[in-house]
Amino acid sequence: MSNAATRPTGEDDLWSVDRHLEDILSAVQPLEPIELQLLDAQGCVLVEDVTVPVSLPPFDNSSMDGYAVRVADVAGASEEFPAVLEVVGDVAAGADDPVRVGPGQAARIMTGAPLPPGAEAVVPVEWTDGGLGEGPAGGMRARSLAPEDAEGQVRVHRPVEARAHVRSEGSDVKAGDRALEAGTILGPPQIALLAAIGRGTVRVRPRPRVVVVSTGSELVQPGEQLGRGRIYDSNSFALTAAARDAGAIAYRVGAVADDAETLRSTIEDQLIRADLLVTTGGVSVGAYDVVKEALADVGDEDVPGGGVEFRRLAMQPGKPQGFGSIGPDHTPLLALPGNPVSSYVSFELFVRPAIRALMGLTDLHRPRVRATLRADKALRSPKGRRQFLRGRYADGEVTPVGGAGSHLVAALAHADALIVVPEDTESVEPGTEVEVVPLG
Fold it and tell me: Among residues of the chain, what percentage have pLDDT more than 90?
C-alpha cells in the first residue's frame, strides 16, 4: 500500500481512480515461475522463449491420400491417355523404411506419410483409377480389406508438378526458430505447438488463485427458499466468473453473515489457497458493514504481515473501496462494494488488472476505444466523479443500457461495454464522442 505521504490528507478528500489503481499495482508482484506439464500450463504465461529443437514437419510428407510418383512418368497424362505405373507398395503414416520409387513406378501413400525415396510429387487418388482399372476413383480401399491394391498397376489421369501435394521439411517451423516468446499466454494452439515440437513441460507463472467472499446476512444462495427481506447472492457468482474470465483459478465462498469474527475467521481460513482475496459488501459507513469492522484494524499484531485500508474514491458507482494485505504471505485483499453493479465495475477497474499483474503480464487493462454516443437525451454525471455507465457498443457507436443505479443487474447483463464520463464532465450530449471500455 501507499504510505501516509501519498494519501489524501483531509477527511473529505477522495482518492482518484488512477491513484487507487496505482497503489494496488505497486503492491502486487508476479507469482514465482514453476515447471508444469503442458495441459496444466493452459492459461499460464511463459517466462522464457521456447526454441524449436526439431523442424516441423520433421520430414517431407504427403498432404493427400494418393500415389507418390516421378514427375516425368505422369507428364501429359489424361483420362483418355492415362499414365500406367507399377504400384510397388504402400507408404503409411509412421513408416520408417518406405519403398523406393523408380522409373515407371508409384507407391500408394497416405496423408502424413513420408515421401518415399525417388518420388518427386503426390498424385491425389481422385486423379487415378485407384488401381481398379476403371474411371476416376473416389478413394482408397482399406489395406486390411484389399491388400492386393498396394500392388499391380494404377492409371494416372492428370500430370503434376514437382513437389505437388508435398509438405516440405521445416515448412512450418525450422530447428532453431523461436516457437513462442516469453509473455505468451498458453492457449490450445500454443499447447499444440509445444507438443508438436516435443516439449512435455514448460516454465510458466501459474494462474493466480483468487478467493471471492461475499458478505451480508440478507444473502441467500440460488436454489434456496427466498424469505422476507432476503435477496439471492449474485455478487460472488459474478466475481468468481469474472476472475476465471481474467485467467485466474477462482474459488467462491458462500455468503458470510454480518458478524466480524466469523468473517475474520473465514478469511484467515481461505489464506491457504489464495494468491488474492476479494470481498464484496460491508465497506460503506453503515452499522452492519462488517468487512470494515473485521479488517480495518487487522495488522501485524492480529494477522502478521497485514493491514487493510478503506477509502472513498471519486467514482460512480463504486465509491467505497478497501485494499491491503493480510496473513504471513502478505496476500493482497481487495474489498469491493456490495451493490452488484458497483461490485462488477470495481472488479473490472481494480481486480482484473491485479490478476493479470500476478500472472506476469504487462498488458493489464482492457483496450479502450472512442465511440459516438447514441441516446435520447443527455447523460448526467456528478461533478468530480468519474462515472461508468453500462452500454452496448457496435460499429463505432455506444448506447446506454439501463440507468445509473448500482443495483441494476438486468441492465448489466445486457451491456457489453462501459461508458466512461470524466470527472470534469457533468453532461454528455447525444452525438458526442465518448470513451468506451468493451467488456468482451
Answer: 73
Report d(CA 336, CA 266) in Å as an integer: 17
Q: What is the pLDDT of residues 160-198, one digit of tens each?
A: 999 999 999 999 999 999 999 999 999 999 999 999 999
Give me the helix-helix angle, 352-359 and 17-27, nearest 10°.
Answer: 30
For Cα atoms 366, 372, 377, give the angle at the middle one, nearest 5 degrees. 115
How do residues 6-41 score in pLDDT, each as one tens digit? 444 444 589 999 999 999 999 999 999 999 999 999
Which cell is 292 given?
470494515
Measured distance CA(400)–CA(432) in Å, rounded = 13
Distance CA(67)–CA(109), nearest Å, equals 5
Peptide bond before residue 340 is cis, with ω within 30 degrees of 0: no
Q: Indicate left, alpha or beta for 360 from its phi (over 0: left) and psi (-120 to 50: alpha).
A: left
Answer whether 47's CB lies under 8 Å from 31's CB.
no
Give the span between the Cα atoms of 219 and 354, in whole angstroms.
27
Judge contact between 123 and 108, C-beta under 8 A: no
Question: Phi and psi (nearest 5°) for 400?
Answer: -60, 145
Taking the C-alpha atoms of residue 180 and residue 191, their distance in angstroms, rounded to an integer, is: 10
Backbone angles phi, psi at 107, to 5 degrees: -125, 130
Q: Tell me: the pLDDT tens digits for 384-413?
A: 999 999 999 999 999 999 765 545 678 888
> Which residue type does 432 have?
T
Q: Which amino acid does the sequence have at 66?
A: G
Residue 303's Cβ-count burial label (10 Å; 0-12, 13-18, 19+) is: buried
- DSSP type of residue 127: G
Q: Which residue has the cell 453500462?
A: 390
- Residue-wise pLDDT for 103-144, tens only, equals 999 999 999 999 999 999 999 999 999 888 777 776 776 666
Q: Are 230 and 218 in contact (CB under 8 A)?
A: yes
Instruction: Calculate what percentage of the chain has a pLDDT beyond 70.
Output: 89
Q: What single-letter DSSP state applies at residue 350?
A: I
Yes or no: say if 186 and 199 are a contact pair by the CB < 8 Å rule: no
CB atoms within 10 A of CB 414: 12
DSSP three-state, residue 27: helix
Strand runs labelled E in 130-261? 152-156, 166-167, 178-180, 201-205, 209-215, 219-220, 231-232, 249-256
| Radius of gyration, alpha carbons of the chain | 32
Q: Measuring CA to CA, which residue among 273, 253, 284, 276 is closest to residue 352?
A: 276
| DSSP structural state of residue 351 | I
